[in-house]
Amino acid sequence: MTAPPPPFTPFLGARIAVVGLGRAGLPAALRLVEWGAEVEVWDDGETARRAAEEAGLTVHNPAEDRFRADALLLSPGIPHRLPKAHPAARAAEAAGAPILCDAEFLYRAVLAAHSGARFVGVTGTNGKSTTTALIHHLLAGAGRPAVVGGNLGPAALGLNILGSDGVYTLEMSSYMLERIATLRFNVAVMLNLSADHLDRHGDMAGYAAAKARIFARQTKQDVAVLGQDDAATVAMGHGLQAQVVPISGLARQKGGIWAEGRALRDEAGTILDLGEAPALPGSHNAQNAAAAAAACFALGLSRDAVAAGLVTYPGLPHRQERVAEARGVVFVNDSKATNADSAARALASYDRVVWIAGGEAKDGGIESIAPFFPRIARAFLIGRDAPMLAQTLAAHGVAHEVAGTLDAATRAAADAAFAGAAPVVLLSPACASWDQFTGFDARGDRFRDLARAIAEETT
């Protein structure tokens, strides 16, 4: 009788403190215990601590006394420097212990398993979720062993160990990237850069430096896929060791992949007419498609496999998601557009819209969207900063109304669209959702329900 294989314990004897027990933290702690680590956990919320105790974990506040772990796995949403360091982070730094994200531990575990699985990292201010999901869709469609996670979907430590033919595709936020130490991406994708999370990174230079860590430790054998549609991202290409593949949704790129109108191309010719890919509207999604194609070509996929995968990609919820259609009007849920740059990309995808926007505005409000205001037939504004957005729209002569709530705005927008204002009702808020919802997803879910109810009424 063959003896069972020994347990996989790559962190045997390691002492790891896990702070922040939300979507990623609790599964990470349990996986680290499974893999042999001595784990203590903490969350500032009593309910989360109770759930950890019920799961059999040791609950201890690492900031109460001398930090006794070898490393701190800190939830990405908890700051370790700006705007104010969490006490656990201060304790870890005082003890000289590294502060890491769960993707770092996954990478170390894969190396410990002697697997040659490759890692694809995707970042950028906008489009990273779509591009991450699209790369995984192309790989899975081509029959490659592949998993996807990180900032999108399952937490990194919730993913299983793949064999040497496998591919991990991880969406990497700036919060995660500033907490990697040895993780090296065989393919690193940097899409674009615009102002976001400046309270966390201090300024644009700090934000850019965090994003640029996607290229850390790459070698000449690796590939860096680099957006060319904004100057800040182009600048990141200087001095990289990896092979750089430029990508664009707007203009030809020598040696890269780009879109000419809706034709996705490279030096060898047309890869696909993106008109055949309904889930990828607009030039920003053309750039996302170019990035996904470049990553998958680097991983050995054929042109036919990439083209077929682009056509069948279903899209992600809350990202230009067509949720209903009635009386010739399409309702589009783009609730993930929590900043002005994201909303601009959505507005650029349609000739004429009735626009629903508002919530908690980012610095600068919506002034940067002004070039797309002529596409707005009428705007309905919601949330805390609706009056501020109304002032901007009024200054540019855009017809608008402060509706207050999403329910009121959706009904009013539908009535305007049915009356002939525009064939699209677009929820692309350009604002965070925390003033009225638990997150952009809850906001998008509510809009989807409202739009479908209106569509049912009209049939």
Structural notes for this entry:
This protein has 459 residues and is of the alpha/beta class. It has 3 domains: 15-100, NAD(P)-binding Rossmann-like Domain (Rossmann fold, 3-Layer(aba) Sandwich); 103-312, 3-Layer(aba) Sandwich (UDP-N-acetylmuramoyl-L-alanine:D-glutamate ligase); 321-458, Mur ligase, C-terminal domain (Protein-Tyrosine Phosphatase, Chain A, Alpha-Beta Complex). 33% of the residues lie in helices and 22% in strands. It contains 15 helices and 22 strands. β4, α3 (87-95) and β5 form a beta-alpha-beta unit. It is globular and about 70 Å long.
Quick gist of this model?
With 459 residues, this protein is of the alpha/beta class. Helix content is 33%, strand content 22%. It has 3 domains: 15-100, NAD(P)-binding Rossmann-like Domain (Rossmann fold, 3-Layer(aba) Sandwich), CATH 3.40.50; 103-312, UDP-N-acetylmuramoyl-L-alanine:D-glutamate ligase (3-Layer(aba) Sandwich), CATH 3.40.1190.10; 321-458, Protein-Tyrosine Phosphatase, Chain A (Alpha-Beta Complex).
Question: Mind sketching the topology for me?
Answer:
Blueprint (H helix, E strand, L loop, with lengths): L14 E5 L5 H10 L3 E5 L3 H9 L3 E2 L11 E4 L12 H9 L3 E2 L1 H11 L5 E6 L4 H14 L4 E5 L16 E5 L2 H4 L9 E4 L7 H4 L2 H9 L10 E5 L3 H5 L7 E6 L8 E4 L2 E4 L2 E5 L8 H17 L4 H10 L8 E6 L2 E5 L6 H8 L5 E6 L1 E2 L14 E7 L3 H10 L4 E5 L1 H13 L5 E4 L3 E2 L7 H19 L1
Parallel strand pairs: 1-2, 1-4, 2-3, 4-5, 6-8, 6-9, 7-8, 9-10, 10-11, 11-12, 16-21, 17-19, 17-21, 19-20
Antiparallel strand pairs: 12-13, 13-14, 15-16, 18-22
Helix pairs in contact: 5-10, 5-11, 10-11, 14-15
